[in-house]
Every structure is written in C-alpha cells, then in structure tokens.
Amino acid sequence: MSPEQTKKTYALKGLGVSPGVVIGKAYLFDPLDSNISFYRLKKSSSIPKEIERLKEALKESEKQLMEIQSKLKKSGVNEPLYIIDVHILILKDKKFTSRTIKYIKRMGINAEWAVRLTLDYYKEIFEQVGDAYIRERISDVQYVGHRILRNLSGEKREIILDIGGEVIVIAPDLSPADTAQMKMDKVIGFATDIGGKTSHTAIVSRAMELPAVAGLGNITQIVKTGDEVIVDGISGVVIVNPYPDVIKRYEEKKIHYSAIDEEYLKYAKLPAQTKDGYLLHIGGNIEFVEEIHSAVAHGAEHIGLYRTEFIYISRQDLPSEDEHVNNYLQIASAKELQWATIRTFDLGGDKIAPDQKHVKELNPQMGLRAIRFCLKEVELFKTQLRAIWRVSAAGNVRILFPMISGIEEIREAKKLLQEAREELLAQGVKIAPRMDIGAMIEVPAAVEIADELAKEVDFFSIGTNDLTQYALAIDRANERLTYLYEPLHPAILRMIKRVVDAAHAANIKVAMCGEMAGDPLYALILLGLQLDELSMNHLAIPRIKKVVRDATVEESKVLLKKALSFGTSQEVRAYVQEYMMKRFPDEFVCDDEQNLLNNHKKVLPAKK
C-alpha cells in the first residue's frame, strides 16, 4: 500500500497560543516558499508548457551541479564530489521526474507545486526506513528539489497558498518576514514546532484571530501538505488526520467556543471599572492598521501599542515619510479611539528592514535592535519621528520608545524628536503643540532606574514579554525552556511593583502592553499592582473587562500581598490559580481536554 493510500493519525500536545478551534487542510510551510508561487493551471493546454518548464529546470540544475563539480576537481577538493554525484543521479532519476509530471497532469498544477508534492512523497518514504543513515539521506533529495524550485521560480514572489482553499500553516517557526509575505485571507490557523505565548507566531495569530498551537516539537516531520488537521488553540492540542468521530467532537467544541465568545462580547463596550470604582483603561495591541476595526469591536478604548516595524519588513525599499503618515493617520483619526500609542520601530533581532545589513549576532535579542538601532540610524529614525509629529495634528497620539536601558538613550531620543519637530515647524507644517512621550520598561536596568526615568517621560509602558525573558535569563522562543517563562515569578511581580510605585511617585501613568496584560489569570494581580492601563491582543479584552467588573481593588491588594509572600513561582502560580478558579468559577473551569488527548494517545500514540 502506497503512502498516498495510508494516513496515520497523531494527537500532539503543545502550547495553545491563540484561542479557538479550526479544522482544515495542512500547508507545510518551507522558508523557500517565499520565493515560489503555487497555482492551478487555468487551461489543460498549459500542461505541456509546464512540463517543458520542469524539464528545462532539471537540465539547468544538472548543468549547475556539473559546474560545481568541475570547480571542486580543479581546486583539489575531492571529498564532496560523491555527494554531487548523488544529486546528479537524483536529477536523472526517471521516477522522480515521472511522479512530478504525473502531479502536473493529474492535478493541473504548476511545476513548482508538483515538485513540492514529490518532495513530500519522498520525505514520507524515507521516514519509514529503519536505518537512521538512509533515513537522513532525504536531505539530498530536498537539496535537489530546492535547486529545481529556485531554477523554476526566478524572482521572489508573494506566498500564495493557493492550494484549493483555506489552509492551516504548519512550520518549524515563522518569522515576521514569513507572515508578512503570506496572503492571510488564505490562512485559518497555525501550528509550529517551536515557540511560546510570546513568539511572533503567537502574537500574529492572536492579532488575526486565528487559532494557533506552538511548541509541538516535531509536527513538521509528521504532517504533509493536504493532510486534514485539527488545531485547538484553547487546549494546545493538534490532531493530524483525525477519525470522523473526532472531527465531530471538535466541530461541537468549535460551536461551543463561538457561543462563549459571543457571550463575552457583551462586555466589550463596557468600562473596565471595579465594584469599588477603580477605572482601568483598556487598549489594544496592533501590528497592522487593518486590525483597528476588530480592536474597537472587541472593546479597545485606545491603541496601547502599535508595532510599526511591519511597515519596513518584506519590501524592497524603505518606506517614505508620506507612507508612514498614511499608515499612522488611520489610527490617529479613528474617532472610536481615545488615543493611539505609536511605538518607534523595533528592528533588529529577527526583524530586518530593507537596506539593513543582516549581521549575524550570537544573541540578536540582546544585540543591535530597537532604540539602539534607531540611535545609530538617525536619518531612518527621524523619518519616522517626523511622520508621527505630522499625524499628531489629526488625533491624540503618543510616542513610545522601546528597549530603553539608560537615561542617555531616552534623552538622545527626545533630542531627535525635538529636532524633527523644529524641522517641520520651519516648513510650516501643522503639528500638535505637544506629544506625550513614553519609555518601554522591558530591560531590568530600566526597572532599577525607574525613578530617574520617570522624570524624563510622561508615561511608562511595561513590556512583560522581554522583561520576563531578560530578568529570568531565558529565550522565550525556546520550547525547552517554556516551563521557566513565568510572569508570576516573585522577581517579575516585584519588578512590576517597583515600576508602578516609581511612576506614581512622579505623577505619571503606567501601562502594561505585554502578553501578561491579556491573560485573565493575572487580572486581579495587575489590579492589585494598580496599573493605570492594560493593552492587549483585542480578543482578550471582553474577558478581561468581565473579570475586572466583578472584582474590587481591595480584594486584589490582598491577593497580591499573599502572592508576594511566597518564595517560588510555583507557589505563586498554584495560589493564584486556586484563588481565581474559586472566585470566578465560570471563567476558569477545568475541561476534559487532557483526558481527550490521552484517549487519542491510547489508540494512536503521538509521535515524539
């Protein structure tokens, strides 16, 4: 029986990073896909031309390998020659070619897509081989396949994902550049090998309201394009090639979740005011201006964090000042929003702008990024600063500087902001008389000098994603360290309290825009800390408002005091979870998802 006729079922447990349930066809994403397009042929008469394209790419690939082999011989380097021989043999393999041509004819698809399907076929064949050495030789087939694809594709194209409908993207991980190139209207969910609740995949999936599960370990080794997949972002479960009765159960859960979501939406437009009168301002985090409508619909009163780096990535040139202005105007002029906080670009790390040289850094998250990069690329930075000033006349705009670690950085950023203002005034451009300036508190050094930083700015915004990462010395994208990423760690709670106290002592507001702000488990803890604003993924807003409206600041202070009395993060989490489940039984119910997963595993063990 061929691999095409048998499909194994797997139940995998990962980390639910974006809520919801989705059932659909898998699309196995490869970074190479950003260079190729997948499409169906409009006419059957196009098939011979497509087959000829394939044959030409095969010939070109063989020619290139022969040239490489010739150069190696001339240089006297003989060891890799046998590998080149293997690759040439694969190119000449009639079964490889005939299978690819069969896909083109039978499915009416372009050559690139057919090559990808052939690679998926061989990948499954090799994975069934018992000998580890032979099994690993799939890399030779993939190398040849990628060379053929490069010769077929030519220039870089958008990732089309046109495989006959909507898809669930399966990937090792996804970078900002990957998702920015995707046609998101084709994507209905995500599942990745690595990542956590603060990974880029998680943030984008929540922003786009798409269910997602991360940290699955080896899903890319199990799934192939076209497999049916269930992604349960509520429980962190992914089921590959599920049985019909399992699909039925998850369809019921999907309907149930949608009903609950509608119930929460009743709280969207209500103020987040506690029973004893404390008003918490709730905002939304966005990466794309297209999210504004959904943010408002879910109850965002303002934009607490607009991540502007996505204006830069996945384009061939740098955005002009006018392009910045046109983008920012859409949030500055939104009448439903009380204000909009524009964070200056956080480029560097895994987010690279056009013309930015990609210098490999041993630890990019602590390298030349965010405000450090801005202060080195002054003209690039001032283009954005001028644009923000220009839209300040259209609405209440605040500016936020990321990754501040010292007084010198904030003063230099303010100096450049003032220079940009003066340049515009000299040109007669209408701008606001002033603009609130904020510093992101996401580096432990900033916590230590929060009292001094508070004298320099109008507000703080605590970025708990990076603050937790840096304070606990863990890579938040490393699934092996997920257990250490704990926002309720006593050190993190004390840091937040220190920042809030310093801000209030200086009579400035303090917000939180990290993922911690949008988790209802932490809602009373944050109330007890007496933050002024919370900004989060807009899907979380209604539920947070519901919890806040049923609470009091006084009980929150008692909870916080008890939480701070524990010495370990496990003790804090256990106490907070128990308290919240008893206090809000309808919000924190135990479900039978683990039992469901275990039942699947008894019949069909998940591959590990």
Q: What is this structure's SSE topology?
A:
Blueprint: E1 10-13, E2 15-18, E3 21-28, H1 47-75, H2 81-92, H3 94-107, H4 111-127, H5 132-136, H6 138-153, E4 167-171, H7 176-181, E5 187-192, H8 200-207, E6 212-214, H9 219-222, E7 228-232, E8 237-240, H10 244-264, E9 272-273, E10 279-286, H11 292-297, E11 302-307, H12 321-332, E12 340-343, H13 370-376, H14 378-391, E13 397-401, H15 407-426, E14 437-441, H16 444-448, H17 450-453, E15 459-462, H18 464-471, H19 490-505, E16 509-512, H20 523-529, E17 533-536, H21 541-549, H22 553-563, H23 569-583, H24 593-603
Parallel strand pairs: 3-4, 4-5, 5-6, 10-11, 10-17, 11-12, 12-13, 13-14, 14-15, 15-16, 16-17
Antiparallel strand pairs: 1-8, 2-6, 3-7, 7-8, 9-10
Q: How would you state the average pLDDT, rounded?
A: 84
Can you count the helices? Answer: 24
Q: What is the CATH superfamily label of the largest domain? A: Phosphoenolpyruvate-binding domains
For the biggest β-sheet, the strand order reads 1-8-7-3-4-5-6-2
Structural class: alpha/beta
Q: What is the CATH third-level topology name of the largest domain?
A: TIM Barrel
Portion in helices = 40-55%
User: What is the domain tally?
Assistant: 4
Mind telling me the C-alpha Rg? 26 Å
Basic shape: globular
| Beta-strand share of residues | 5-15%
